[in-house]
Structure formats: C-alpha cells, structure tokens
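Exercise 7. Predict the joint structure of the components listed below.
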Amino acid sequence: MKLLEDRILRDGQVRPGNVLKVDCFLNHQLDVDLLDKIGEEFYRIFKDDGVNKILTIEASGIAIACMTARHFDVPVVFAKKAKSKNIDGDVYTSTVHSYTYGKDYNITLAQKFLGPNDRVLILDDFLANGKAMRGLLDVCQQAGASVAGIGICIEKGFQPGGGELRREGYKLASLAIVDEMGDNGSLKFRETEY
Amino acid sequence: MKLLEDRILRDGQVRPGNVLKVDCFLNHQLDVDLLDKIGEEFYRIFKDDGVNKILTIEASGIAIACMTARHFDVPVVFAKKAKSKNIDGDVYTSTVHSYTYGKDYNITLAQKFLGPNDRVLILDDFLANGKAMRGLLDVCQQAGASVAGIGICIEKGFQPGGGELRREGYKLASLAIVDEMGDNGSLKFRETEY
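Solution:
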C-alpha cells in the first residue's frame, strides 16, 4: 500500500534493535483518515473470504480493527492483555512472548465472543516474530473458529513471523513489508503480494 | 442518547459491586455501527468547541475515540497504561487508582503529542469515580493543553466523578447516565443534559 509506505518513509523512525517507530500516526497518536484507508484496503483484499468477525489484540490493533470493521459491517473482538476483574465466566487464554516488553504475558478472550460459527479476519499493526499472532491463532483454534485471513499493517520481513505463516498456508496480507532497516534510518520495502 | 440506553437495557448486565457489563457491544466485543453513531453524537455536541485533538486512554477508549475523530477529522492520542520499551524521549505521566484492577497504575503520553496549541475533547467509555479522567486532565494540564470538553458513553450517576467535574465547570456530556442499578438487574437512567 503505497500510501502507507510513503507515510512510513516520511514519519517512521528507525531505532536500535530493529525498532520501527510509527507512533505519530499508527499506535500512540492515530491518523484516523489513514486508518480508514487501511481499513478500505483490508476490505478490498479480504471481502470475498467470508469474514463475519474481526479479531485483534489490545491496544494497537483496536483502531485498525474498528476502521476495517466499518467496511465489512461485522463486530470486532479484541484479546485483552491485563487481568481484569470484569471478565467473568469462561475465557480462552494463551501465552505470548513479547519482544516489546521483554517477557511473557497472557491474553484472554471471553468464550462467548468466539466460536465455531465464526470466520475471522485477524488484524494487527505489526508482524515481526509472530508471537502475538500465534496467541491469537491459538485462541481461534480453542474456539473452533476458522481463520479467513491475517491482515498486518507493517511486517518486518527480515524476521521469521511472516514467512512461517505463509508457509503454513494462511492468507497473510501485509500492507507494507520492511525488508531492511539501515542504521542511517533507511528503509527498504518488499513488493507486496495483494 | 436513546439508542445507547436501549442497547444497555437490552445487552447490559448488572453485576455485584455496582458493575455494569457492556462487554458484548462496547468494550470487549465492539459494535462498530453503534460506536459510529456514538461518534456522531459526540460530534453533534462538541462540534463548535474548537476541538483539534481527541484524547483517550487505552484500551476501551480507543474505539470510541477513533469513531468520533472521523467526524471531527482530527487526530486521536491515547494514554498508555503499561510501561513500554518503545516510548522514548519525554513523556507526561500521571497516577490513576483503578477500581477495576484494585490498585494504582501510571499512565504515560509522549510529550510530542500534546501541547499548548491543543484543544482536546477527552473521551472514555465509563465515568464512575473519575480517577482515570483525573489522570487525563492532569496530563492536559502538564501539557498546557486546553480541554474543550469531556465525552462519556456511560456515567454511573450514583458515583461522584460526574458531579465533581460539572461543578468544576467542565462541559461534560454523558450519553447515558445510570442513576440506579438494582440487584434484580434493573437500571434507571437520568435525563441527559445534551
């Protein structure tokens, strides 16, 4: 998605440790117009895949999921990271190793919100090692839900998550794939598939 | 907002400890069409108040903020709760006591995203004791930002947060105000101001 690639080039910042900061438009301050266009793009790619629900993880995925759900006219559910007093009843849980936080954490989703009748589009802002995505896929498996596809805004193509998911046969659409991040701040994008 | 009140009556669940669960449409599973109408309503109420940015707190406020920001055509910024490796540089911080989690937590916002030129509409899903809102107001004060108004989806009118904010002169618009929650699950709404 050229609009997203151009925005990354304009406003993204490369940091040590292969970190790409896009906090001024994607995951701390949000450019809602850009997110809406991202949502349109995910709709274009996945509209014939029978999606009846969008699944994401708090917090960075929520905005993307909502703007996409508008186009699909389906609900959004998001996995929660923190223990909440207000999730009662049965939950699906999975464990995720976070690169950002340097530790494992649990994700939870109330069972009533995901089941065998669901065909989900899983969305998130980043894909790198793929640990968060594995947690969401685990939750889908526990629920008996099928996965129509996976939509990612920015994939770090030099990390293994994307390749593994593609080899396993998932329809994975990343709107921008960064194949190289130079110490001087340079970025090289891979041509995307969809 | 009658649409929201009706939805609360239909799908909301009263739990012990004055908890009102609206997780099937507002803050775990999201009804994006309802959220869009909520956004329209906040726009109707605040459109002449000079808003140039919407401020909220992760995670439950993000969807509401994004759907509202579409109508205003302004950015959203959200305060973060967890310590992140990826917030570098200067941040505003404040301490919030959480009823939900039973403890204090810090909120942070990168300083580059809020300053004296900003006139914010602060949005959140719930207002009860008002602790989270106080944290956001504190961040605004540190930033030198002015507060155009506060928009809340559901206010627990029997808790002090709303009254205090109104007495202090904030333009506080709550789309539904619950004045009573009965053990039998009954709810009584207060007539709203806007």
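Discussion. The helical segments of chain A are 2-11, 23-27, 32-46, 60-72, 131-143, 161-167.
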